[in-house]
Amino acid sequence: SFAGRGRASSANGARATLTTMTEPQLHPELDGVHNFREVAPYPLRGGGRLRPGMIYRAGGLELMSEGDVAYLGEELGVATILDLRHPDEGAPSDHPLASRVAHISVFSEENTQQGLIDELNGLYGLGPSPERYLHYLLAGGDRWLRAMRLFADESAYPVLIHCTAGKDRTGVLVGMIMDILGAGDEDIAAEYGLSSASVDRLIAYLESTGRTLEGTREEIVARLITPPERMAGFIRLMREKYGSAEAYLVSQGMSAEEVQRIRELLTGS
User: Fold this and answer.
1) Which of these, 213, 175, 197, 217, lies nearest to 15 by C-alpha position?
2) Tens of pLDDT along 112-129?
3) Sign, Cα dihedral of 240, 242, 248, 252
4) What one-character DSSP code corresponds to residue 23?
5) How far is it, in rounded angstroms, from Cα 50 to Cα 189?
6) Who is most buried in 48, 56, 256, 258, counting CB within 10 A?
């Protein structure tokens, strides 16, 4: 994964939060999809809640069972699968719902996946960190804009966002969406932190798809968990540099009308 290998950094600080945190919607555990959940129904500062039935998130989908395909494609009616992976990560659309995939790698295809990981490791050390996530925005630019514009299109919903682990690139995009909508900082961080519960399934997925995981079991788990303070640190750094997720996207070319449309589509009662 683009998280690389090694240490997990922490960060302090987040803006004022809402008074309560909200449990996410519960769905059946899928047979062949790790780290799957719905992003809802978090309360929003402007009133209302993040509308249920609109955004889901997951890790890689190529091991879906027939039941998984039926649940995602028919019962939930997922219309768009936003795949954030680099082409080097395998066959990003090689599954029965491939016709619904919008493939937008948030890193340039001009470099290899390993080259990108080596670059990030050289800049920020091994493993995920708030600073590493902020670099995703610096490196991604128009790619994050293309991905976010999907959420201003009513016909795209419901949307399932995924990468390989469903925690780093997916986590940054979900964090930005929640920031745009006005979710509380604690909820943004806690939503990211939920991915820790899927670490065992993530490890099994990585091993089954041919990845070599270095270190002891304890070291591997430590690299793959998602402490909420890491996302809180990323949100803080993003605001220090850009002001907000909205300001970052506007700097990349998104219009105020597109941002408002996202809010309208994703804010429910």
Assistant:
1) 175
2) 888 988 999 899 988 899
3) negative
4) P
5) 15
6) 56
pLDDT for the residue 141: 87
Site of tokens 């080259």? 115
- CA atoms of 249 and 14, how far apart (whole Å): 20
- Residue from 21, 17, 14, 10 nearest 229 by CA: 10
CA distance 255 to 118: 34
List, for residues 215-250, the tens digit of each pLDDT value.
Answer: 899 989 998 999 999 999 999 999 999 999 999 999
β-strand 267-268 against 80-83: which pairing, if any? unpaired
Say how far apart CA 139 and CA 263 lie, in whole Å.
26
Alpha helix stretches (DSSP H) within 60-160: 66-70, 113-124, 130-140, 142-149
- Stated as kind and residue range, the H or E segment containing 232 is helix 228-242
**pLDDT range class, residue 211, cuts 50, 70, 90:** confident
